[in-house]
Design brief:
0% strand, elongated, disordered C terminus, 127 residues, mainly alpha, de novo design (two linked rop proteins)
Length: 127
């Protein structure tokens, strides 16, 4: 996979927007900010989506890239799980939950599409 810049990846742009949405939602809720564990876990999970995409871009083989993209998807799923805790505790409104949850889902779908393309590329190169 050859890209000049990280920002050329749609999945990275989406992950960045997801991370911004998580931080923004936390900033809007003083009560939520008091739950340092949950805030930290959500910030770490959102940041890990971005970081694993970035790390994958720096790898040499499609297999290595795909492994890190799978980890990014796992981090998005972890974030979705934490969103349930946030909404159940009243830290996050249902509309905000739906918005961020959907954004995480969209990010995962884009990552999944990239993984599929990498798998096709790998097959074409070896086949």
């Amino acid at each position: 996979m050859k890209l000049a810049r990280l920002e050329d990846l749609e999945c990275f742009r989406q992950a960045r927007a997801l991370t911004k949405a998580v931080y923004g939602a936390i900033d809007e809720s003083p009560r939520w900010q008091q739950d340092e564990w949950l805030c930290g876990q959500m910030q770490i999970a959102a940041g890990a989506v971005m970081a694993n995409i970035a790390e994958g871009l720096g790898r040499r083989s499609n297999k290595e890239i795909s492994q890190l993209l799978f980890i990014a998807m796992s981090s998005a799923a972890e974030l979705q799980s934490h969103l349930y805790t946030a909404v159940d505790q009243g830290y996050l409104s249902k509309p905000s939950f739906d918005l961020i949850y959907g954004h995480a889902e969209k990010t995962s779908q884009i990552i999944s599409g990239l993984i599929s393309c990498l798998g096709t590329t790998q097959t074409e190169q070896t086949g």
